[in-house]
Amino acid sequence: MRSSPLPRMSRRGRVTVGVLLGVFLLLTLLGWGVQAWTDWLWFEEVNYTGVFSGVLVTRIMLFLAVGLAMALLVGGNMWLAYRLRPVLRPNSPEQVTLERYRSVLAPRIGTWLAAVGVIVGLFAGLSAQTRWGQWMLFRNAQDFGVEDPEFKIDIGFYVFQFPFLRYLLGIGFTAVVLAVVGALAMHYIFGGVRLQGVGDRMSTAARAHLTSLVAVFVLLKAIAYVLDRRAMLLEFNEGVNLYGAGYADINALLPAKEILAYISIVVAVAIIVFSNAVMRNLVWPGISLALLGISAVAIGGIYPWAVQTFEVKPSVRDKEAAYIERSITATRDAFGIAGTAMSPYNAANLKPPATLATDKSVVPNIRLLDPQLVSETYTQLQQVRGFYDFGPKLDIDRYQINGETQDYVVGMREINYLELTPQQSNWINRHTVFTHGYGLVGAPANQVVCGGQPFFVSGFLGERTEEACSSATETIPATQPRIYYGEQMDGSDYAIVGRPEGQNPVEFDRPTGREGGEQYYTYTGTGGVEIGSFGRRLLYAIKEQEPNFVLSGAVNDDSKLLYVRNPRERVEKVAPFLTLDGDPYPAVVGGRVQWIVDGYTTAATYPYAEQVNLQEQTADELTGLGTFELAREDVNYIRNSVKATVDAYDGTVKLYEFDESDPVLKAWNKAFGGDLVTPKAEIPADLAAHFRYPADLFKVQRNLLSRFHVTDSSEFFSGQDFWEVPNVPDAPDSNEKQPPYYLFTQLPGQAEPRFQLTSAVTPAGRQNLAALISGSYLNGQPRLEVLELPDQTAVSGPVQVHQKMTNNANIRQELNLLTSNQAQVQYGNLLSLPFGDGMLYVEPVYVKSNQTNAYPLLQRVLISYGDGGQYVVLANSLEDGIKQLVELGRKAGAETPPTTPPPTNENPGATPTPTPSSDTPPPLTPALAAAATKVQAAIDEVKAAQTSGDFERYGRALKALDEAMTEFQTAQGSGGGAAPNPTPAGSPAASGGTPSPPAGSPGG
Q1: At what angle do helices 534-544 and 11-46 cross, to 10 degrees?
Q2: Under a CB-based contact definition with an 8 Å cutoff, are residues 217 and 184 in contact?
Q3: In angstroms, rounded to a whole number, what is the distance separating the alpha carbons of residues 192 and 180?
């Protein structure tokens, strides 16, 4: 009996290998096991174990099914090749060399083939388990009720079934290729295929086996051609810069794909017949494959190119008209902009109407607080402790107080673990003492007090003292104001809470009104995973790689672990199929602070729809500043199908259905048992009152409307009426887009004020205003509206308006007075508001000291009407500014020249209107002269304060200058006779110097 070519391993060696293998598997699988176990506990806490188990079971099933299928196909064909090996092999140097390999493989051929199958199946299974989402949608496909314009197939096929079918086809190709390679290797090693020697180089069995595999590959290619016909409706048409099949695709490439599918079937049959039944060689099968390749190039490449070059390009507009219309229709449907209400708005009035002063629907609701700028103000005035933080940007919401609705700038006083001192950052303090923030701090968006500060009405830490700069009572009361879940927390910011009854609380709650007093608290909410047992402590010690879970006395029998505390991450974990908006916002609902997160269902296979990249489409000035950047996801269908909430105290997550007609959400809901989301009818009314049009969805829709508001194919092809989003008005060279802004206002055509997201757009390549786009909810349904200005109307856009206002000589002079080496001017949101058949522009002006820990204060309001240049004022308040603007309009009307014609030969009796000399100014009245003297003295004091570097003195000087300027303007209005905007003596402009522009001002 021939001995085995491999020596047997000793028992000790086998034990050693077994132990090492066991340790390796233990260390490898331990992390996976701990992660899976802790994930289950977390999902059990939030009552969404169905999501965890559904995803896990699906991934395991796909791993096993695809991995086993791939292993059987590849390993089985290699086993078949081994079984078909010839019994006798001719002697040759080649066979002598291969004999060494055969002697190694043959005794343990089953083991070797099983190892190959396991390796192939492992990689295939790991790849397949990532497709769990595609499989779930495939199994739970829904109808859209809309057919594609070419094949008349429901859109649901493309969204739910097509992606997984393409994946299965790819798996099939991979399996056949690997099977061919494996079988060929086995045939070669065991003599079925030879490179040397006389006679046939391939045995009959080997030829039949390998050609059958090649025929299967060609048949799969035929199936690919059929699917490619559907995929053509998703591809990019370079001729018209749109997605979807064009003229050449439909009339040349589409029939070519069908012909190639039939040719592939014929070739597959020919390969089997000619190689095994007729000629029994590989000549004709090779010719058949060559003909298939030539046909693919000629029919599928050259012919469509010829049609595109010689038939389509000479008359692209006419040939592609029908296909452009398909793309327009599909894009408007897929992105929810088909129902956009388009309304003309002339904006022909350039003079401020008198109704501005008496308006009750637009002017009183104009937002002055910029949520980005006043975040620093909130932090400095409401921080109290250095580890509290409001983030780089606050949020806008509206509340009904005493029967009146208005918008508020709100922020959460959260724990910022990065701001803890080294003493506070030890493990005990970080995870058991500093566990939560406190209070939702809000202020009316249109009101300032105490020299430009917000008027705080909520989020107070304790007993109220009499303060003029904030409300005496909580206007937005929260029965549970503690913030255990917030935007400032990342994955490492877990908290261990809970104490046995009777023990003193250890969690820092908030400072009290007493000197040096601090209040402590013990968490009583339902959130968190219980970690009182030793097993749980050990589990999380391994997960967090932190021995204090086991060793520290701070972890007791009643302890709970709060983790995944960022509301956006929390919703993402519960609903991994959703794309989440980048700007979650807090609201007080029923006395509880709730985070509201907008969730989108998306798809990338909607026929003929434009494909966009979410990250590129949603990026603007605020991206990364309190707004999360979206992933680089290409989509051509999106719906705001879910409104999710996260309780800031106990972390409860709820998913509410918002779009009842979305087939994608219906498919996901069905995939997870049918009760994953709460029906829209069950949304609490007080929660629905705080829903707002989501910003990222609005940006995508706004950007698409800049092109797809054009519905005529000829006009779309010319592109003459396309729009674009303007850059940031006060920094146009930054190439950052102006963010949309939330307003509680009433636009033309609306019956009453609404809380809506608005944005101005300009013509492509120009800066004048083209339209205003708004998104709001009307009767619980999303509504997009566009106020489109006539093409011939040259109304200034945001960038132009800012430049005109800040470059006005008189306003520039006043802005320079606010700017020095001790302070800088910052501009808030520039709001474009249609009013009185014209445009009203409002831009708050903040002043921020250059000293450490300084914060911006609202000092002025820039207001203009019309084109932004003729009627413009810089006022101390919005109310004063509106009065001044209306007065400018009244004076302009009074100064309009009379209609009586000047004297001519035909009208000798007419009396000409005298023209006052521009060289002789009218005399000053005593009151006006005294006011001018005060202004001059105030300017001198401002300069002295700047030189001294005393910021407190500088603030008093500015206040005195404000009062002096107000007195001067009052004296002017009483008929002083001076020029409307005199330059006080001694000012930079009067002394002949060129004033430096304020910080951030363009064109300075």
Answers
A1: 100
A2: no
A3: 14
For 415, the token pair is 């724990």
**CB of 220 closer than 8 Å to CB of 73:** no
pLDDT of the residue at 986: 33
Three-state SS letters, 963-998: HHHHHHHHHHHCCCCCCCCCCCCCCCCCCCCCCCCC
Q: How many whole angstroms separate alpha carbon 326 and alpha carbon 334? A: 12
d(CA 515, CA 508): 16
| Parallel/antiparallel/unpaired status of strands 723-724 and 453-454 | unpaired
Give the number of other Cβ atoms within 10 Å of residue 535's Cβ.
9
What CA dihedral angle connects 957, 962, 963 and 966, to 10 degrees? 160
- In this structure, the chain runs to a length of 1004
d(CA 708, CA 242): 11
The predicted pLDDT at position 992 comes to 35
Q: What is the DSSP string of 504-562?
A: PP-EEEEE-SSTT-EEEE---SS-SEE--SHHHHHHHHHHHT-THHHH-TTS-TT-EEE
Please name every residue paired with 415 in a beta bridge, in sequence order, or none if there are none.
388
> Which of 728, 725, 682 minimizes the C-alpha distance to 702?
725
Q: For the chain, which ranges sit under pLDDT 50?
A: 1-6, 897-922, 975-1004
Q: Which helix (H) or strand (E) holds 814?
A: helix 809-818
What is the 3-class SS of 204-238, one letter each residue? HHHHHHHHHHHHHHHHHHHHHHHHHHHHHHHCEEC
Closest CA to 228 of 251, 214, 213, 249: 249
- The one-character DSSP state at 251 is I
Alpha-carbon span 86 to 205, nearest angstrom: 9
- The CA distance from 105 to 109, in Å, is 5
Pick the closest to residue 251 from 298, 312, 297 (CA basis).
312
Cα separation, 539 vs 517, in Å, equals 38
Pair 627, 393: CB distance under 8 Å: yes
DSSP 147: B
pLDDT of res. 852: 81
| Residue from 486, 550, 568, 574 nearest 39 by CA | 574
Tokens of 1003: 């064109």
Give, in degrees to the nearest 5, the angle at Cα 498 between 555 and 425.
60
The secondary structure element, H or E, covering residue 711 is none
Tens digits of residue pLDDT in 745-770: 999 999 999 999 999 999 998 999 99
Tokens in use for 125?
């299974």
What is the spatial distance between Cα 787 and Cα 769, in angstroms, rounded to a whole number?
A: 11
Determine the Cα–Cα distance for residues 157 and 867; give it in Å rounded to an integer. 51
Tokens of residue 680, six digits? 């829209």
Give CA–CA dist 582/626, Å, rounded. 9
CA 88 to chain centre: 68
Using CB atoms within 10 A of its CB, is residue 203 exposed (0-12), middle (13-18) or buried (19+)? Answer: buried
Q: Is 627:684 a contact under the CB 8 Å cutoff? A: no
Judged on CB neighbours under 10 Å (0-12, 13-18, 19+), 650 is buried
> What single-letter DSSP state applies at residue 47?
T
CA atoms within 13 A on the CB side of 685: 1
Exposed e or buried b per residue across 242-256, where buried means at least 16 C-beta atoms within 10 angstroms of its C-beta: bbbbbbbbbbbbbeb
**Nearest-angstrom CA–CA distance, 313 and 351:** 50
Contacts for 211 with CB less than 8 Å, ≥ 6 apart:
271, 272, 275, 276, 282, 285
How does strand 529-530 pair with strand 592-603?
A: unpaired
What pLDDT shows up at residue 998?
37
Provide the pLDDT for residue 89: 67
> Of 183, 261, 253, nearest to 220 (Cα)?
261
